[in-house]
């Protein structure tokens, strides 16, 4: 167990976010949990505080709003919390051709998947560096390693998050701060339902549970790794994407997003 930290987890009401919150709580860290669904957040905060004897605060937040990240940071400050670890887990995807998906909803995706984690990193990383401790765990995706027809914008947002994380890792690694990109393959969570991925070939290949993904991400962050890819098949997929041609990779990705009969 490490010294107690305050960990801010976004997207903490379901899936990987819940499992990461459980792991940090079991480690003895205090929590600030953020997501849109206040009832789920409150129940999780009460459960983890009771079970692990930590402090857990629930702050409802909508990171799809242009000022959502700043508003969350203000509420964190009002509560007197000093964020040692930022877990940028909030995110969503949509499946379909870019030209036919709802444009406003796609802009929301950029806001949640790119703008919000960037803003939160900008707001909390300077304090971490000044204190010489802590870090950021960005939940990216195996999608970050290639283009993804039928989920073009989602893949692009995760490529940004991986690149951003790797650069920050190098900028901070000698200053007592770590930045880790967690890049899971398909995970059976509400994300898959929202993105309409449940019946695709992708979700029949190398699926890893949210609990396994969270454990790999937590352990990798604690070990100060730059990139964590949970599961053997996703690891092979990431490696293969770097060996194959970009044309072949995007055709494979498009085929995996298709629905099997």
Which stretches are poorly predicted, pLDDT < 50 over at least 5 residues? Answer: none
Specify the overall morphology: globular
Mean pLDDT: 89
What is the CATH architecture term?
A: 3-Layer(aba) Sandwich
Instruction: Output the number of helix runs.
Output: 9
The count of β-strands is 7
Order of helices and strands: EHEHEHEHEHEHHEHH
Strand order of the biggest β-sheet: 3-2-1-4-5-6-7
Radius of gyration: 18 Å
Structure, explained:
With 261 residues, the chain is an alpha/beta fold. The chain has a single domain, classed as NAD(P)-binding Rossmann-like Domain (Rossmann fold), CATH 3.40.50.720. The protein contains nine helices and seven strands. It has helices spanning 15-26, 38-52, 68-78, 103-131, 152-172, 190-194, 210-222, 232-243, 246-256; strands at 6-10, 30-35, 56-60, 85-88, 135-139, 178-182, 227-228. Helix 3 packs parallel to helix 4 (103-131). The radius of gyration is 18 Å and the shape is globular.
